[in-house]
Write a structure and sequence with these properties.
Rossmann fold, 2 domains, globular
Length: 300
């Protein structure tokens, strides 16, 4: 288990991380989420011991993370760091040896993962000859080649088409089944919602919300419905029962006042508008993300 307690990081007078705490359980994917500049990368680099915290503690499997832990940590950074004029196999051998593999093992593991990700044909190509998506696969292999126990993935789906996204998603889930401890940082809320059991949402260096995603949805939820419309869209001022409405091309997501019974509102709605779909919905992680960040920005 990875435990971060009361993490603070200051750069001169700038407070980049403000009292962040989190727990990442083995065999689970933890979502570290937030807008650009929220402090995610600083938090990650502090966990990795790349930069020192101003205060707080970082513990993995009961011990502080020190340089000795580098060889059991895999890190996929958002910024790509491949040597573009070098051959794929040479780059992977280099990163494998940096993680304390011998050359023979590095070659064997590299070939295994190149085949697993369907890019073995590019083994002896230069990095610059590969598509962005395949370069991203090489970067991912470099992060996992040494079979790390703790894996930190910063925007791992960047540059992938839907087929390759699914392939990488399946790979990450296979690491979960192996009991690895995984932190996922991404702006793709739909994927985070599907993969993460626990999340921490940060903004301006501080925690906005954290905990089990299911519990967060329940607490955040409200009284939400989705209405499919055959005709014109609904206007909020038509119905005093509506707190908020998001209109789309042929349906509307509606938040009702807490005391309103959805079935009773449907009866009233049918009397005025032709409805072809009605369902009670829970808020998406994307909606929670947007609403909480807006609320936090207004409070600053």
């Amino acid at each position: 288990m990875l435990i971060v307690n009361n993490l603070v990081k200051k750069f001169n007078t700038t407070l980049a991380v403000n009292n962040i705490s989190l727990k990442v359980r083995p065999g689970k994917i933890f979502g570290l989420l937030g807008p650009n500049g929220a402090g995610k990368t600083t938090t990650i680099r502090t966990i990795l011991n790349i930069i020192k915290p101003t205060s707080g503690e970082i513990i993995f499997d009961g011990n502080p993370i020190t340089y000795e832990y580098y060889n059991i940590i895999g890190y996929l950074p958002e910024e790509r760091g491949l040597y573009k004029r070098s051959k794929v196999i040479d780059v992977l051998i280099y990163f494998g040896v940096l993680k304390n593999l011998n050359v023979r093992d590095a070659i064997n593991f590299a070939d295994y993962w190149l085949k697993k990700l369907n890019i073995l044909e590019y083994r002896d190509k230069r990095i610059e000859q590969l598509s962005k998506g395949n370069q991203q696969k090489i970067q991912l292999i470099a992060a996992i080649i040494h079979n790390p126990s703790l894996l930190i993935l910063d925007e791992p789906f960047t540059g992938f088409d839907p087929i390759n996204q699914q392939e990488v998603k399946d790979l990450i889930l296979s690491f979960v089944s192996e009991g690895k401890t995984i932190i996922l940082s991404t702006h793709q809320m739909e994927l985070a919602e599907k993969l993460c059991e626990d999340i921490l949402l940060i903004d301006n260096g501080s925690a906005v919300t954290s905990g089990n995603l299911t519990d967060i949805k329940k607490n955040f939820g409200g009284n939400n419905i989705r209405v499919g419309l055959a005709g014109r869209l609904i206007s909020q001022n038509q119905f005093p029962e509506i707190v908020k409405i998001d209109n789309y091309n042929n349906y509307s997501d509606i938040q009702l006042r807490d005391e309103i019974v959805p079935s009773e509102f449907l009866k009233k709605l049918i009397g005025k508008i032709e409805v072809n779909h009605f369902s009670i919905i829970e808020p998406t992680l994307n909606k929670i993300f947007i609403d909480l960040i807006k609320k936090n920005s207004n409070n600053i």
